[in-house]
Amino acid sequence: MIYKIIGAMKPGIKVSDLWRIANEEYRRYGLEPQERERRVGHGIGLQGGESPSLSAIDHRILEVGIITTPEPEGYDLADIQPYRFHYEEVVVITKDGNEILSKMPTELNPLTHLT
Q1: For residues 4-23, average pLDDT
Q2: I need a surface site. Which of 5, 18, 34, 59 has the fewest CB within 10 A?
Q3: Are 69 and 41 in contact (CB under 8 A)?
Q4: Which domains are seen in the chain, by residue range?
Q5: What is the pLDDT of residue 115?
């Protein structure tokens, strides 16, 4: 899901379009879509979380040099409440698209037990 969002991140794209892409992915995986006010990522700079807010109500245009953290999350997976997933990558917008600054592992290590 996160890489579908990242794949669309380039100069000239509206932030709200990234929210729409994330919600298409939520539906594809049988998850509840995010509410309009809820974001699926945010910008970073001097503060930990700042604009742009990757939400349906933020229509800013991505520009070269903007750093964002797409971070879709989901709840109620396979009826295992109250667990959820939440992951993110740090991405900078470049003239040719984007570059992932963080390197999140793509393999999932299953938990053998919970304490």
Answers
A1: 94
A2: 59
A3: yes
A4: 2-100 (3.90.230.10)
A5: 47
Rounded Cα distance, 46 and 63, in Å: 18
Helix, strand, coil percentages (3-state) for the chain, rounded to 5, are 20, 25, 55
Instruction: State both tokens at 26.
Output: 């939520």
Cα–Cα distance for residue pair 51/48, rounded to 1 Å: 10
Reference 69, options 107, 34, 30, 42; nearest CA is 42
Token pair, residue 7, equals 């794949």
User: Regarding predicted confidence, which is higher, 86 or 6?
Assistant: 6
* pLDDT of 5: 92
Pairing of strands 97-100, 91-94: antiparallel
